[in-house]
Write a structure and sequence with these properties.
With 265 residues, the chain is an alpha+beta fold. The protein has seven helices and eight strands.
Length: 265
């Protein structure tokens, strides 16, 4: 089992505190580099397509296809890195984790149905509103669900299902995503947060790096459990603000008082 925790300052493990200034410089320079690289890749892909359409030689078609695939993968990787740099600590606003899940639910169910996978939801109605960066939470959910789907696509034998649960527990909101896919060995678990480490053949190794940054931005923690060939589970714990905790305790005391009054009468 692999456990990762973030400190109260929401500092992602992808960056150390003494690198903050350097990261700010990267955030300014890298988008320019990405733009120039994409400008170089676009004609490579375009000319490759033209050459493929003008030859019937299978040898050249195969090699040109490899050039095209590699260029497309590099373009995709650049786009993901660009998105990563955009994940800044923007102001949070009140929101509900269940509502964000419900928004994404129809697309997930359609994709699961097309791949003959069961997508099961168990959302705790007691989950309260809390400060969230809504776009980041959507990206977190989409990345984790995509990984679960890919793992299940590689596994042909049942069960083939993804479970997504929310839970209010001990003044914390828990988000749990579990799939019955390929699972991971311990050495794979030890590397899942490393940049560019990819378990799947067509992966970029950046999806979980982005997830880590989002989790850190919410001062949350993440625990990962997996058993090779059986399951993988991500449990993300969001701490509730002190005011929410006090309101919950007040509500619990009030309910207990009402219950006791009814019993006495």
């Amino acid at each position: 089992m692999k456990i990762i925790e973030f400190n109260p300052e929401s500092q992602s493990t992808a960056f150390s505190k003494d690198q903050t200034g350097l990261n700010d410089i990267f955030r300014e320079i890298l988008p320019v580099i990405f733009h120039k690289l994409k400008n170089k890749l676009t004609p490579i892909i375009g000319y490759t397509e033209i050459l493929k359409s003008r030859t019937r030689d299978e040898f050249f078609i195969e090699r040109l296809g490899k050039i095209e695939n590699n260029a497309n993968e590099l373009t995709s990787m650049l786009n993901i890195l660009k998105d990563y740099l955009k994940i800044e600590a923007k102001p949070k606003r009140a929101g509900n984790l269940n509502h964000i899940v419900q928004k994404l639910k129809p697309d997930w169910q359609r994709t699961a149905s097309e791949n003959e996978i069961d997508f099961l939801f168990n959302l705790d109605r007691n989950v309260p509103n809390m400060p969230l960066r809504h776009g980041q939470i959507e990206l977190l959910l989409l990345n984790l669900a995509a990984n679960a789907l890919t793992s299940l696509q590689m596994k042909k034998l049942p069960p083939r299902e993804i479970q997504l649960n929310t839970r209010l527990e001990d003044h914390q909101v828990k988000l749990i995503i579990r799939d019955s896919g390929m699972g991971m060995e311990q050495n794979e678990l030890n590397n899942i947060w490393a940049p560019f480490y990819a378990k799947f053949q067509n992966g970029t190794g950046l999806g979980l790096l982005i997830c880590e940054k989002i989790i850190a931005n919410h001062a949350a923690s993440c625990q990962v459990r997996s058993h090779l060939g059986v399951f993988t589970e991500f449990e993300i714990v969001f701490p509730l603000p002190e005011k929410s905790k006090k309101r919950k305790l007040k509500s619990q005391r009030m309910n207990q008082t009402i219950k006791k009054t009814k019993e006495d009468s």
